[in-house]
Amino acid sequence: MDLANFHKVRLAVQDNAHPADDSHAARVQLALHDALTASGLFDQVELGRTDDVDQLVIGLCRCAEKVLPWEAGLGVERLWRAVTQTLAWESHSLGCTESLMEFEGAVTVDASGHYVTVHLVAEPPLGWVPSETDGADDVRDGHDAEHADQPAQRPPLRVVAEVQS
Q: Which phi-psi region, left, alpha or beta, contains residue 125 (left: φ > 0; alpha: ψ -120 to 50)?
């Protein structure tokens, strides 16, 4: 599911339910903050809450040294599943490149469908400069010393969304 479809699903939930109260949003924020901080994927994690129903919990993260946003995005997706595993329903969308990760999620927090929405953005590590050979020896891009004369293959934009009910 792409971001546009995620927004349609989120809107359907919003049309049929109400935002969760502040205590539920605070619990989601705290669980997500703890998971992001403990993961080692980020040097900086800042989360807050808003009154915007599309992003009740917002966040900005700075990737840890040698962790690119697309790599962190894969980890955020796993963390999100762990944070939301006890909730009735969740949906999320993840868009990643090597220079930006954007995650949007929505969960229902009780049987009456009250929801919390999340919008999280991650930037590359401080001092990171993209280059054609960045990570040339990493397994993640399938490039090795045998092919050192060829440019490293960059991962494509990854857009992932899952719906569970």
A: beta
CATH, range 3-87+102-128+152-164:
3.30.460
* Whole-angstrom distance, CA of residue 30 vs CA of residue 47: 9
Tally of CB atoms within 10 A around 72 = 27
Q: What is the pTM of this model?
A: 0.77
Other C-beta atoms within 10 Å of 76: how many? 28
Q: For the chain, how big is the Rg over CA atoms in Å?
A: 17
Q: In angstroms, rounded to a whole number, what is the distance separating the alpha carbons of residues 28 and 111?
A: 16
Count CB neighbours of 114 within 10 A.
17
Comparing C-alpha atoms, which of 156, 116, 115, 155 is closest to residue 138? Answer: 155
Tell me the per-residue pLDDT of 104-154, one tens digit each, with 9 for 90 and over.
999 999 988 899 999 999 999 988 887 654 443 443 444 344 444 444 444
**Could you tell me the residue ranges of all domains in the chain?**
3-87+102-128+152-164
